[in-house]
Specification:
- There is one protein chain.
- By secondary structure, the chain is α/β, with parallel strands linked by helices.
- It has a single domain, classed as Hexapeptide repeat proteins (UDP N-Acetylglucosamine Acyltransferase, domain 1, 3 Solenoid).
- It has four helices and 19 strands.
- It has a seven-stranded mixed sheet, with no helix packed on it.
- β18 and β19 form a beta hairpin.
Length: 187
């Protein structure tokens, strides 16, 4: 394992301009393109499931992801049983993305683990790092939700459409807005 990949996986600052990381990213692009080309109407559910199993780090039983779907590597994403991901999902997984069971993810949702340097010179040099995202069981992310690096969303929480989640959300709440804020507890 090269130094950049080691640093990336450790959550440290690294420069992603690296042949090893480029090869892993190209693998993900190829698998995403193959998956997206199958479309939802293809009767070959087993073939689609096989592509997901090859792309993702782990994928539970009954997971459905509607095309198109895009990710950086795929291998750092794990999705629990019964989860549904709607059209145009973007999961940038330079750090782990862990999605629980029975999660509902609306269209155009973005799960973004990368963060970039605030220092202009280092940002121009390409420095970035990833901070993991965790989505608990039975969460519902409405359409267009953006989950920022390092966020954990507790089980049974609902995040309203178009919200931008910049900090952790507890279990069993409704959160909305930009930035997302808890508006009430759910029963």
């Amino acid at each position: 394992m090269g130094e950049n990949k080691r640093r990336m996986l450790a959550g440290e600052w690294y420069v992603p301009d690296d042949p090893e990381l480029a090869a892993e990213s190209a693998r993900a692009v190829t698998l995403c393109a193959a998956y997206n080309a199958t479309g939802d109407a293809v009767p070959d559910a087993a073939g689609r499931a096989k592509l997901l199993a090859e792309l993702l780090g782990s994928v539970g039983e009954g997971v459905r992801i509607r095309a198109p779907f895009h990710c950086d590597f795929g291998s750092y994403i794990s999705i629990g049983d019964g989860t549904f991901v709607n059209f145009n999902a973007v999961f940038l997984d330079i750090a782990p993305i862990t999605i629980g069971m029975d999660v509902q993810i609306g269209p155009n949702v973005q799960l973004l683990t990368p963060t970039h340097e605030l220092d202009a010179a280092r940002r121009r040099e390409g420095w970035e790092k990833g901070i993991p995202i965790t989505i608990g069981d039975n969460v519902w992310l409405g359409g267009g939700v953006i989950v920022c690096p390092g966020v954990t969303i507790g089980a049974n929480t609902v995040v309203g459409a178009g919200s931008v989640v910049v900090k952790d959300l507890p279990e069993g709440v409704l959160a909305v807005g930009n930035p997302a804020r808890v508006v009430r507890e759910l029963e």
